[in-house]
Amino acid sequence: MATRKFEHVIRDRRRQLGLTQEHLARKINSSASYISNLEAGKRTPSRQLTAKLADALDLDSHDLLLLTIPKITSFLSDTKNSQDGSAWDSFLKDDALRTSYEITEDELSMLSKVAMMGEVRSSHDFIFVLKSIRQASRRWLR
Questions:
Q1: What are the two backbone dihedrals, phi and then psi, of residue 60, each rounded to the nearest 5 degrees?
Q2: 32-41 long-range contacts, Cβ below 8 Å, gap at least 24?
């Protein structure tokens, strides 16, 4: 099963936004070589820098911070899945989470198709996918 890695998320998102490593470095008051090292998985950012990266890349800072600690992320995902069945079932049962993100029926239908792909490990992965799609839609509609 594929697992998202911090370095891949920031690299893919930076590219998606059309930013160079130099431009991203300027946005977070760092260097291009540091961004390169982050994207290569050679460095782990501090909590403060992770928050700056999340802001600059329009990502959820909590999700991004968890990705900087892969062993904890894996543990949390495995524990949640083993206790609650599939990630999709857990997501459907979590009315508070779905309500807090104001998920529409159309979005729920789209997320059900994502669930069928079999790569989602937790309810929070669905939120990550939803936020990414919403962000892409906002940019497309401009």
A1: -70, 120
A2: 38/6, 38/7, 38/10, 39/7, 39/10, 39/11, 39/14, 40/7, 41/5, 41/6, 41/7
Instruction: State the CATH class of domain 6-67.
Output: mainly alpha
CA 53 – CA 2 distance, rounded (Å): 23
Domain with CATH 1.10.260.40 in the chain: 6-67
pLDDT values of the chain reduced to their tens digit, one per residue, 142 residues: 346 789 999 999 999 999 999 999 999 999 999 999 999 999 989 889 999 999 999 888 888 888 887 655 554 454 444 444 588 888 888 888 888 889 998 888 888 888 877 667 788 888 988 988 888 877 666 5
Q: Scan for tokens 């968890």, then name that residue.
A: 66
Q: How many other C-beta atoms can be found within 10 angstroms of the C-beta atom of residue 4? A: 17
